[in-house]
Design goal:
By secondary structure, the chain is α/β, with parallel strands linked by helices. The chain has ten helices and 13 strands. It folds into two domains: about 5-165, Glycogen Phosphorylase B (Rossmann fold), CATH 3.40.50; about 205-339, Rossmann fold. The strands form three sheets. Strands 10-9-8-11-12-13 form a six-stranded parallel beta sheet, with helices on both faces. The chain has a four-stranded parallel beta sheet with strand order 4-5-6-7.
């Protein structure tokens, strides 16, 4: 597996636990681009190696070399070898090279709605590369129906696509996660534990994930500035890290929202926050899935979300699920104030 997810390097992370589950099906070597070289054994059949390299170009060629070594050293008696890549772009190009050089099979994972979302429409070179690589795949894995349909519209044959949802730490009633993961059952009293650092608020809203432009967080903070004019006791917790965090901190200060928008560093599991929130907010401009929204529904927590990812596919509008056209400001304001 060629992956970009550095959370896998943490043995206690949910990403690492998923890899261990995959290793119960097949022996798995995961290769991740990074500036230093590491070898970590997550379990007996699952090993993680990092490439080394000062920049993306050197890491690209280091990944090629390392992956080639792994394939050459693999058990020659194995009847079928696969390379699976996180996307059809940077990692997909490496996978295509390995397929041609060693005659192994190629699976491309498509976790984002790159070919069906307006958000990515101007990234012409990237989308062209993605189309070229996808045509060379033996199998394509997606995490949801929305991405699957966008690939079919692109001309990918349906029988090449395998929909395999990301496993949940909170299990929804009547659904099994693939692969199976532990069910987290907990309820934490807001006044005494989880929200002890933020006492006295009437409603608690939670967002969690990567603080990147596609997550639309500056827009969400601006919406919340309107919310608190009417509901001074509403609190928004932004949990995570990313390239937009400095801008977000600055925007919160400019809007004088320091008492109503608080930041929490990256946590491995959002489940305790999701379970105890009054509502989960999901304003992304594009998603392949939207795991946080799915986990919120599984936990019984209301969610307000843009029409991206699982919205209107795996999740349908209901009393607790409010799906809104992307960036419909007035509708978002109305639904938050209803909580």
């Amino acid at each position: 597996m060629i992956s970009l997810d550095k959370n896998i390097l943490n043995k206690d992370s949910s990403a690492a636990r998923r890899m261990i589950e995959y290793g119960k099906e097949n022996k798995l070597v995961i290769i991740i681009p990074a500036s230093s070289k590491l070898v970590i054994n997550l379990s007996d059949p699952v090993q993680v190696q990092t490439s080394g390299g000062r920049n993306k170009v050197s890491q690209f060629f280091s990944l090629l070399k390392l992956a080639s070594q792994v394939i050459k050293q693999s058990d020659s008696s194995t009847t079928e070898k696969w390379v699976t890549t996180q996307d059809p772009f940077f990692t997909g190009l490496i996978g295509w090279y390995l397929k041609k050089k060693f005659g192994i099979k190629l699976e491309i994972q498509v976790h984002g709605d790159f070919f069906g979302s307006q958000y990515y429409k101007n990234q012409l070179l990237k989308l062209w590369l993605g189309r070229v690589v996808l045509r060379r795949a033996d199998k394509i894995r997606t995490v949801g129906e929305r991405v699957s349909r966008s690939l079919i519209n692109l001309g990918v044959r349906k029988n090449f696509i395998n929909i395999r949802p990301i496993s949940l730490e909170v299990q929804p009633q009547g659904r099994k996660a693939l692969p199976p993961t532990p069910v987290v059952r907990c309820h934490i009293d807001k006044e005494n534990t989880l929200f002890k650092d933020f006492p006295g608020y009437g409603k608690y809203f939670v967002w969690g994930g990567r603080m990147e432009p596609v997550k639309n967080l500056l827009w969400l903070v601006d919406i919340f500035s309107e919310v608190v004019k009417k509901k001074r006791n509403y609190l928004l917790l932004l949990i995570g890290a990313g390239s937009e965090k400095v801008k977000l901190l600055k925007e919160v200060k400019n809007l004088k929202l320091e008492n109503n928008v608080r930041f929490i560093p990256w946590v491995d599991s959002l489940i305790p926050y999701i379970i105890n929130a009054d509502c989960v907010l999901f304003p992304s401009l594009s998603e392949g899935c939207g795991l946080v929204a799915v986990e919120a529904v599984a936990a019984g927590t209301p969610v307000i979300m843009n029409d991206v990812g699982v919205a209107n596919y795996e999740l349908q509008s209901s009393e607790k699920i409010k799906i809104i056209s992307v960036s419909d400001r007035q509708k978002w304001l109305v639904e938050i104030l209803k909580i």
